[in-house]
């Protein structure tokens, strides 16, 4: 799960925050260190791995949240307004990362109010869009 307002443990470096699912699940983070380094590089945070969460920009925090969400290699990623706190350039970068995960076989579900982001996603991958209004499904399909 990637939340719009991602939360981290402020006393831990961002690399340890990203590795937290390993720790919680009982997996050895040391054995998975190369995977962790690769994942941190993939989201563009290698130079910031030792920074504390408060030292990161909004975009860096969102990328760290994405890395933490995929640390355990899930088949499904739920992203609630994953680009809500970042500028358009960073939104596209995060979207590209999510689209790449989709191309790798992951199912990605994004909740967003941003129609431009939806259009950008549809330009990169096949997407099915559901429009919800007043708590009800108002339209569905690929041509929304």
Sequence-ordered SSE layout with sheet pairings:
Layout: H1 14-25, H2 33-42, H3 58-70, E1 76-80, H4 88-103, E2 107-111, H5 115-124, E3 129-133, E4 136-141
Parallel strand pairs: 1-2
Antiparallel strand pairs: 3-4
Describe the overall structure:
This protein has five helices and four strands; from the N terminus they run αααβαβαββ. By secondary structure, it is an alpha+beta fold. It has a single domain (14-141), classed as P-loop containing nucleotide triphosphate hydrolases (Rossmann fold), CATH 3.40.50. The strands form two sheets. It has a two-stranded parallel sheet with strand order 1-2. Strands 3-4 form a two-stranded antiparallel sheet. The longest helix is centred in the middle third of the chain and has 16 residues, at 88-103. The relative contact order is 0.14. The mean pLDDT is 88.
Provide a quick synopsis of the model.
This protein is of the alpha+beta class and 144 residues long.
């Amino acid at each position: 799960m990637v939340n719009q307002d991602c939360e981290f443990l402020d006393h831990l470096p961002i690399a340890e925050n990203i590795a937290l699912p390993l720790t919680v699940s009982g997996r050895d983070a040391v054995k998975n260190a190369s995977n962790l380094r690769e994942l941190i590089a993939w989201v563009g945070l290698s130079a910031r791995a030792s920074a504390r969460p408060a030292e990161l920009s909004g975009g860096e925090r969102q990328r760290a949240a994405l890395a933490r969400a995929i640390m355990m290699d899930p088949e499904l990623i739920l992203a609630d307004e994953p680009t809500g706190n970042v500028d358009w350039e960073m939104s596209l970068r995060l979207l590209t990362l999510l689209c790449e995960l989709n191309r790798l076989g992951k199912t990605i579900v994004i909740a967003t109010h941003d129609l431009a982001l939806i259009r950008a996603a549809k330009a990169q991958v096949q997407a099915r869009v559901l429009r919800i209004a007043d708590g009800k499904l108002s339209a569905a399909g690929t041509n929304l």
